[in-house]
Amino acid sequence: MSNKGGVGKTTISINIAFTLARMGKRVALIDIDFHGPNLPVLLGVNEKPEVTAYGIKPIVVDGVQVMSLALLTRKDDDPCLWSGETKRHMVLQMFKSILWDNPDIYVIDTPPSLGDENLIVSDIVDKIVIVTTPHPASQFDVRKMLRFLGDKVKAVVVNMYDLFRYDINIKHERIYTIKYDPELQINPRKPIDVIEKLVKEVILGE
After folding, report:
1. Strand, helix or coil at 137?
2. Three-state DSSP class for residue 30
3. Would the pTM of this model clear 0.85, i.e. be above it?
4. Is the pLDDT of residue 34 over 90?
């Protein structure tokens, strides 16, 4: 999660999901950024999921089960105009109506802000990872999210920290810094040592 856009949430979500998969976990990767779903674009997924009488089958990418609203719309540029209760219903349907194949872990890519989607997800997940950059505007917004979400936030990722010459003014016991890597724009599944450390320490609790 993040209270700021453009900090690399989707890239980090993808990297966490595929890191877990490489460790032998069954992973479901869900994109609930209904107004700007970018997960299929970053993964290079163009196929539409199979719709059956029992539900919708997720797309499987290198062992990771993937679902996004962008995979369900008729056209790539179809806008989403949902709000309020409709969003709550659709977030829950991402769990109920998708034919997930017994995942061990759900990784959820959320939109920026403390809007409906993030408030709904914060009620149903056990662990939250917040993503930011060192830029003061990003840190300012993320500090609000930290205060609101409290103990559910298990880690903070400071992405592209070497691009900005600012101090990190975020208080959390687990802060992971990631250098800017242009290759991640092309291959967000690229192994990152810091993400592997985060997964082991925070998500799996090893």
Report:
1. helix
2. strand
3. yes
4. no
